[in-house]
Protein 1
Amino acid sequence: MSLNSLFDSAARGHMNAVRITEDHRVFVAEVPVPTPAEDEVLIRPAACGLCGTDLHILHHGFPGSVYPVTPCHEFSGHIVAVGGAVRGLREGDFVAVDPNVTCGTCRWCRAGRPNLCPHLSPIGVARPGAAAEFVVAPARNTFRLRDSLRADVAAMIEPLACVLHAVDSSQGVKDRDVLVMGGGTMGLLIAIVCDMFGAGRVTIADPSPAKRAIAGRAGIANTIDPAALGEVHFDVVFEAAGVRRALEQAIDCVEKTGVLVQVGVHDADAMVGFNPFRIYERELRIIGSNSLADKFPAAVDVMNDIADRAAVLIGETFPAWEFARAAQAMAAGTGIKTQLAF
């Protein structure tokens, strides 16, 4: 769609948006162009990524989803309008958005853990997301970027922020042997960040030879099929696959006094079996890492440093209105990061 068409849409007060209904139908609808409140900005998306949350919303439902929902919470774009109370942002700014809209006043927000806010209302889940001609975001969630940063790379700042929270939750990776279970977007970004943060050795375990090859191109030299891990142990293990078998195997790979960080999103009713005596005997620590906490500003800075490595992860890109086909491609697992382009 041309820029003129976009502004024609805005002028007549309507725009195209991808919509997902509770019965798992997906279609493109004409909806009103959102009007930014005094403390909000209106953004024209340039690129947005699909993630497991979007697939859950489409196929199974996801906690907190408000149907019909416009999906996609990983995005970059340009501001086209600002509310009257907004300072520090202006029309034309190239931005990325922290999708977690929170109350800002509860105990968790005050403690720097807004991801645990009981009033959490994420863009693309409980609020309209970026698979649309325009999307509204609070100004406090919107971060200006370097114009030189590619839009598709900038759209990965949100998962990078989740990664920074996970690595921070591990209580340190410097000089430690790190294993990442899962070679998807989260797993590869975790590996890149751990390498950047001075880990002694970083290993990616994934059954897909194609994903292991992409890891190599992203600068991760040590890759392995999980079936070949054997009895090797690691100081820090990140489970980033969201698969039961991967989590069960990850527990067995943690060295004595080591840390397992669960990053992978499992089904809400999934159950995992493990031997609690191993946790006791080996003095293991198991830590959950949920979303991005307060790491979005840090992720903006880190992405400037790893942009070239992160770009290797970008796989198939689809026109914005082919969300269903993009979701199919992502579910097939043939690439790493599936994106929509405008």
Protein 2
Amino acid sequence: MESAERLLTSYLAFRSGRYVYAAEAVHIREIINLPEFRQVDEAPDYIAGLVSIRGTVVPLMDLDIRFAHPSVHHHQYMTTDKVVIFNCDGSPTGIIVNEIIDIYEIPADSIVPAPVYGRDTISASAFIETVAKIDEDIIMIINQKKLFDPVYRPAGDLAGGTVAERYFCQIADADRSIFHKRALELASSASRDGQEDDLMPLAIVEAGGELFGIELDVIREFININEYRQVPCCPSHIVGNINLRGEILTLIDITGVLSLARGNIKSAIVVSVDNFTVGICIDNISDILYLPMAGFKELPAALGQTSEDFFEFTTLYDARAVVVLNLQSILYKGNLIVNEVL
């Protein structure tokens, strides 16, 4: 039997206001940019509104209001906000967040019960039952089943609170049109017909000053690189080794294969390809999102055969063309593997 520390569970970490939360990735259906939505009468205060996503009406929850944070008044929604959509008893429900932070694989022994602060009512520990220690950070893990159950209410809401006034950011007409355009695109997209395979989860990363897409199914986690140990007599693409929670991880630079200049070594994605795990150096992570397969385009012929080996297809991200990388091909055909062991 595996020891507890090797039992890993994937969590998506995100920020709402000044708080950082995490939820089990297995329950997450997709991540989208915040669209325009419609407020509805008789909905709970914490439901900001409804949006149509490929023919399905999805309620959107405001976490600040759900947690009854007392400072929530005249709440602004920004074009940079995201919506994390959960499968909730077969029905999708979205929560509005300010930022997608990372995907972590957290060992079981790093998750501990949250403090109860001397309270024992059903509402006092309704939504946050456990916390996780990740490097130097403490992240609150949401119990999404309770979060979406109206029976549970936060302690600060027991005496009744004021309803926050919610509105889209009233800054410029361009921002309002962005929200509206997103809603139209979501509503007009083809129905998913109950299938989950028409969306591809991607991480949008920057490397060598360019944006690339990487499929999430090969990514184990994202890490910051504070220091690493260089290895003598290694090829130039071997940046060095780091100790990642007791695991020696080799860092690889792929910018040379892609004919790009190497940037600062400050972040990496930990990927598992075939039977080995490596860290791919990146400048930073820009986003994590789910994109419809219908939006992917074949590579332009001008890219050539070499590029076709390393790139899979192109897509649009915030009106910019992004090339999705084939990491397996880059590692093997780019000769980044040394004696089959990294």
